[in-house]
Amino acid sequence: MKKVKHLYIIIFLAAILTYLVSAEYTKLGAHSLWWGLRQNMVFLAGVLAWFGMSFTIILSIRNGVISRWCGGLDKAYKLHKWCAISAVVLALIHWLAEKVPHWLVDAGMVAHPGELGDIVMAGWQEQLLDFGLVLAEYGLYLLIALSLVSISKKIPYHIFYYLHKAFPVVYIACAYHVMTSLFKTDWWQTPAAYLLAFVTAVAVGCALIALFQRTGSRNTSVADILHVEAAPQDIVEVTVRHRATIPMLPGQFAFVQFAHSTERHPFTLSDVNPDEKSLTFSIKKLGDYTRELAQHLLPGQRVKIEGPYGDFTFEHAGNKQLWIAGGIGVTPFMAKLKDATRKGQPLSGVEFWYFTRPDRGLTYPDYLTELCHQAGVRLKYFTVNNTENMQQHITEMKSSLNDNGVDIWFCGPDGLKKSINDTLKQQAVSIQHFHADCFSWR
Predict the structure, then answer these.
(1) C-alpha triplet 73, 75, 80: angle, nearest 5°
(2) Which residue of 136, 165, 172, 377 pairs with 372 in a disulfide if CB–CB is 3.0 to 4.6 A?
(3) What is the dihedral of CA 387, 390, 395, 398, to 10 degrees?
(4) Predicted pLDDT at 179
(5) Which residue range or ranges hold the FAD-binding FR-type domain (predicted)?
(6) How many other CB atoms sit within 10 Å of the CB of residue 291?
(7) What is the pTM of this model?
(8) What does the alpha-carbon distance between residue 24 and residue 21 come to, in Å, rounded to a whole number?
(9) What is the DSSP string of 73-96?
(10) CATH assignment of 320-436?
(11) Every domain of the chain and the residues it spans
(12) Pick from 45, 39, 36: nearest CA to 93
């Protein structure tokens, strides 16, 4: 996640640099200090919000190069989320910095400063500018609504999915406002306007890709369902066969669109069999879509698969590996175990900790012990029901965790990940090589 944080900082440092090269701050002494500061706040917050919005849409199209820069698509979507939230907050500050002083003038609480600039606009420019202001204001309302839907996990995914499709339209409308707002400035005499125009042009292109539903089109293939099986713990196993060999690796995931739906959902591969050109997805019944999935699926149905994505591939791992899974987070490890067994390549030096809840009954898959034995992996089950219980387990594991040469691969619920990290900090255990995909998309 450090790479994502660094990219987040770089994005907004680029926005600040754009504001600085506009030399807007040099006009502070042209009017009263208060009004000058207010005008600079409008521009600074606006540029920061615009960079946040632009990279939100750029990150959304699942470009392979950008995803690799972020350390995987899951990390790119985490950055996408941070940029989106920041953009909404900064857009609201931009809007308030513009509106509140006017409200104070209308209320007679402060005097009107007169024109703050010496730019004379043509009539058509004023008309375009005014229309852009209207678009931007309504666009802000929609952005706030979209953000609330995105961060609230109580709202069903299908509502989140379809409302998200409105964002490219909102972005293009706001792009119109950004470019027409430059009519009342002298930014075109500085590199600032050209930096804004470049970022805007790239992001508008990405918005059009999303608007015309071309996201991931180059990475999409068609498969047929081979069989659907019910598994323990409300899990459905769906095996599909590709018509061509797709270079997917154990531990990766793909966006899957089944024939009965127009939605694409990300699912992790629990098996990759290149000999049979088949893929298996183990899908946990967690929401309305996944709970009803099995009753819609039949052998022979077409499936659209977009992928592969993710860097949870166990590549460049050291000789000693520690795998930690919780719940359905076992799936990428299943794929790796099956791959190693199929190739006859034992995974020496691998220890696998599988955390379960005492109320969940039979663990998934029920053949995991045998699978680990075949692959040469040491498996340990841990039952967790409270924080104290977790601390006890970590105490038992300290000898393995204190080995600086061990690579740790984690996949499981965010709550388990946080509990493990908190306990490690309390017990002063240092982790240097920790790999985890971000499977929470909202």
Answers:
(1) 90
(2) 377
(3) -120
(4) 93
(5) 218-315
(6) 13
(7) 0.85
(8) 8
(9) HHHHHHHHHHHHHHHHHHHHHHHH
(10) 3.40.50.80
(11) 2-211, 217-309, 320-436
(12) 45
